């Protein structure tokens, strides 16, 4: 499984930004799709998670109502739409999938995407 992130960058407080994660897999079934983020000196935290089979989503309290995780199954891509960004959202964002090939489940990570929100 390979994950390729895109769409990060520098924005101003109050702006919106949409980041993407393209998923390449041939034998694995994707069970969950998620976005994590990590700020300097802080632990990596779960921002949003999507379960493709059910469509259910989960969000960190800090982003509820502002961020939306979604997917385009035709493009094998999932997204994180981020609205009303604040400097507290500045972090490296990583996409993650939990995938299963019928024998074992594994976590796969993207390379990380810098999102910087200026005040």
Based on CA atoms alone, the radius of gyration comes out at: 14 Å
> What shape does the CA trace take?
elongated
- Count up the helices: 0
Helix content: under 10%
SSE arrangement, N to C: EEEEEEEEEEE
Helix vs. strand class:
mainly beta
Q: What characterizes the major β-sheet? A: 7 strands, mixed
Structure description:
This protein is mainly β and 119 residues long. 0% of the residues lie in helices and 58% in strands. It has strands at 2-6, 9-12, 17-24, 29-38, 45-50, 57-59, 67-72, 77-82, 91-100, 105-109, 113-118. Strands 2, 4, 5, 6, 9, 10 and 11 form a 7-stranded mixed beta sheet that branches. Strands 1-3-8-7 form a 4-stranded antiparallel beta sheet, with no helix packed on it. It is elongated and about 45 Å long.
Quick take:
This protein is mainly beta. The chain is built from no helices and eleven strands.
Summarize the SSE layout with pairings.
Layout: E1 2-6, E2 9-12, E3 17-24, E4 29-38, E5 45-50, E6 57-59, E7 67-72, E8 77-82, E9 91-100, E10 105-109, E11 113-118
Parallel strand pairs: 2-11
Antiparallel strand pairs: 1-3, 3-8, 4-5, 4-9, 5-6, 7-8, 9-10, 9-11
